[in-house]
Design brief:
59% of the residues lie in helices and 15% in strands. By secondary structure, the chain is α+β, with helices and mostly antiparallel strands. Strand 1 (38-44) and strand 2 form a beta hairpin. It is elongated, with a radius of gyration of 24 Å.
Length: 234
């Protein structure tokens, strides 16, 4: 991958408006730029929850799922240890036996796992797979490392933007639900919010879910009583 390709990469990644579209571009450039046969991205969420965010093949999802189930593997270890982990021959790898056996069964001979991180946070990992052992050399490691920096910034930005819009949508829904309760039951804003919070806690539902159900059905979750019963506990 030369300077021109890196320039195209930077523009393409930072122009993508959604997480999903950004992930598609990350995988496309990874496969083309490094020359691997398969690729996947693992996301790290709050409290250490890990998931496969995108993959070019189902085999990638299976290999990453095995690592999550086992609690070990190159895609996970690169999160905490090194910025790059390279497995030159999965058939000779005894560091992660369950993963290595699955990789051999699925026709994966080598792996290059790169941590996706910004200055402030770790987004996840970019995992590149090749059929033949020894497919990744030092040049590939260098390219993947630079590529991962671009990808991490773009993905972190896209995730933050999605979280922002989800928060805005949630606030709109809660405000609309408050308005419905205030008009229907002659409640104050604080009383209407107290009703929504009570139904959220009692039903173990997110406040946004309670609000959206009220907007869609004009009834609160599991509310089979008369309207007056809603306002009595506010």
């Amino acid at each position: 991958m030369d300077a021109r390709h890196f320039a195209e990469l930077a523009v393409a990644l930072h122009d993508e408006p959604t997480v999903e579209e950004t992930l598609d571009e990350v995988l496309r450039f990874a496969v083309d730029g490094v020359g691997c046969s398969m690729a996947g991205v693992v996301f790290v969420h709050g409290r250490g929850r890990i998931e496969t965010a995108a993959a070019t093949h189902e085999a990638v999802r299976e290999l990453e799922g095995i690592q999550v189930a086992e609690g070990s593997g190159p895609d996970l270890e690169v999160l905490d240890a090194d910025e790059v982990i390279r497995v030159d021959d999965t058939g000779a790898c005894d560091r992660w036996p369950a993963w290595a056996a699955a990789a051999d069964r699925l026709g994966v001979g080598s792996l290059l796992a790169v941590r996706l991180h910004t200055r402030d946070t770790t987004v996840g990992t970019l995992n590149l797979y090749a059929a033949e052992p020894g497919s990744f050399d030092e040049d590939d490691v260098a390219v993947a490392h630079i590529f991962a920096r671009h990808a991490a910034v773009a993905l972190a930005s896209a995730r933050n933007l999605r979280n922002l819009w989800e928060a805005v949508d949630a606030r709109k829904a809660v405000g609309q639900a408050q308005g419905i309760l205030m008009e229907r039951y002659r409640l104050s804003p604080d009383q209407a919010m107290a009703v929504l919070l009570r139904y959220s806690q009692d039903g173990n539902l997110k406040l946004r879910v309670v609000a959206e159900q009220l907007i869609e059905t004009t009834r609160l979750p599991s509310d089979g009583g008369e309207p007056g019963e809603v306002s009595s506990g506010a």
